[in-house]
Design goal:
alpha/beta; five-stranded parallel beta sheet; eight-stranded mixed beta barrel; TIM Barrel; 16 helices; Rossmann fold
Amino acid sequence: MLIIVSESLGRSPIVIEVARELSLNLSYFGSVGSLDRLLSGESRRFVVLGEEEINNEVVDALVRAKRHAVFGLIVCADPKTLRASNRARAAKTLAAYPNVEWLARDHDSSMLSAALRKCRRRMLKLGKDELEKALLNREFFLRYQPKVERSDGAEWKTHEAEALIRWRHPENGLLGPLEFLPEAEAFELIGPISEFVLFEAGTQLLRWREQGLDLKVCINLSSSQLNNPLLAHNYQRIVKKLGLECASFTFEVAEQDVASSQAPHLLVLKELRSMGFRISLDDFGVAVASLGTFEQLPFDEIKIHASALKRAQENPVALKVLAAVTGLAHNLGISVCAEGVEDQETFEFLKTIECDKMQGYLISEAVMPEIIRKVYNSSKKSIVSVA
């Protein structure tokens, strides 16, 4: 799928990062003529406009394209400011478009990514029968993102890989999990899909062992799965059927899903842990509310969100808080993983807070299982991408 970005936004790292994250091809336009050409044809795409491109000529090009093309529209400007200017007509037309998201001019990658996902979901309009057919026809597959761990000395070695589901849709191409898992939740298909992921990941572990790779795998759990009292027993059954140990699997749950130590679904996590599965607290943001119940939650690992790392790099107080959290985790026997590590500067920074593990594009993006061998066999003091 193509993302068309106005030249006024520049070839910003934010756009490039999000395009890579969502597996989008990237093109730029600097004139109405080039926008017309990029919008020709019937394939789905996105258009991202900066404030400078919001004029009648560009809007007219979008209106013409709407007759034959399906596209999502991201507008990086304040609609109130536009309506109060000589571009009121253009702003009104854009606001009436059925698949539009508005962003501030100073948006970040998370905001742009979320807006694009919303637009893409509106374009897809997935049905329950499509998801059921995808399971039956094995259109889903897994990619794996390595997680490196500090070993003796200065070396980092790969011991784990996170299993990430993708859908090779027959019409819409490659889809990431956020493009179809919300529908799977709504249609109550998340259970069969998660069991597929567990079985496929376990099968891949066996293949890696045959190749001499001693790895473990991490799998994401949604909040709705944590309401299933049979989840732990079902997962234990699948793992035993494969002849594997429960300790070979780590289940990752988002911080927001376990904000309270009294949450009922924590019983499911505790049961998983009692069977030998490991539990990781994903997207940990180092919030004060999190620290209040930190020691009461059944976790073996916390994954520090990339935004928390960035704040700590820029703010001395945030750095002290992050270092304190890391120290508390270690005192409780909990390992600490940094996620979203994308540059050497962040890698060097992690040494100052004694982070145990890291994951991100600096090491490798999510790749097909055969490429994991390259990461597994590399142990370097200076981490470089192998994807």
